[in-house]
Design brief:
With about 250 residues, the chain is α/β, with parallel strands linked by helices. It has helices at about 5-20, 25-40, 60, 75-80, 95-100, 125-130, 155-165, 170-180, 195-205, 215-230; strands spanning about 45-50, 65-70, 85-90, 110-115, 135-145, 180-195, 235-250. α6 (about 125-130) crosses α8 (about 170-180) and α9 runs antiparallel to α10 (about 215-230).
Length: about 250
């Protein structure tokens, strides 16, 4: 997550990040509900949304919890967080905080959310072990991630690169268990529909960090492939997510 490529991707994407997801308020509501159902934040809880982006899901967490620390390496993303006394911004990345190099404003947290973050780090088990130390007794850490294969209407080179890079949720669950967390792995999915032109523009905007690995000519060739595969006016697919929940035992 600390790589220059990743930082540049999110800095460039920041102005269009919410626009790329605003197509479906229903999706945001669904994902927020899925997160809240698993993390179960309570009114007195301290929560950290690690890799929060523009705070799409921190907003829902803040409706339940006392305070949400919104941590991200991208200052451009953090600048778009909505104002609110329950939201605290922290310019720090997952590796800094896991390694004790960051400066979180609290000694411990009742819940930590990592949504689509771990594929950016080199050693997820080490990162999870470090973040476990930030949990209070009974605290929960929730990793939301894509499975190792996806049904997205992307071009084949992008799908192949995704399969090569994406961590396995089973491995993440095993790493949590090795960190002495009580672990549960579940899956859920949401149906999506776009006009082909809208989806092509999202690809052109590189709405997934993965797409930053392709230059402009490769992206345009990929969009031509998408049009060939999907000659109709729409693309429809199911967005499937893995939810890996780890709970720290109470003392």
């Amino acid at each position: 997550m600390g790589s220059d490529v990743t930082r540049a991707h999110y800095k460039r994407l920041a102005d269009k990040y919410d626009e790329n997801w605003a197509y479906s308020p229903e999706f945001i509501q669904w994902m927020t509900g899925a997160i809240l159902d698993r993390l179960q934040p309570e009114p007195g809880d301290l929560v950290m949304d690690l890799g929060c982006g523009t705070g799409l899901y921190a907003r829902g967490l803040a409706e339940r919890a006392n305070t949400v620390v919104c941590a991200d390496l991208s200052s451009a993303m953090l600048a778009q967080l909505p104002a609110g006394e329950r939201l605290i911004t922290l310019h720090a990345g997952v590796e800094e905080l896991a390694e004790g190099r960051g400066a979180p404003p609290h000694d411990g947290y009742d819940a930590i959310l990592l949504k689509e973050v771990l594929h950016h780090v080199a050693d997820p088990p080490r990162i999870l072990a470090g973040l476990t130390r930030l949990l209070r007794p009974g605290g929960r850490i929730l990793v939301v991630m894509l499975p190792t294969t996806i049904d997205y209407p992307l071009f084949e080179a992008a799908l192949k690169l995704f399969r090569e890079r994406q961590p396995d949720p089973e491995d993440i669950a095993a790493a949590m268990a090795r960190s002495a967390l009580r672990t549960e792995l579940t899956y859920d999915e949401f149906p999506l529909a776009f006009t082909v032109e809208r989806y092509a523009q999202m690809v052109r905007d590189r709405y997934m960090s993965l797409l930053s690995s392709f230059d402009g000519a490769e992206i345009e060739a990929g969009i031509s492939e998408i049009h060939r595969k999907h000659p109709g006016p729409e693309v429809r697919f199911r967005d499937r997510f893995a939810f890996v929940l780890g709970t720290k035992e109470t003392v």
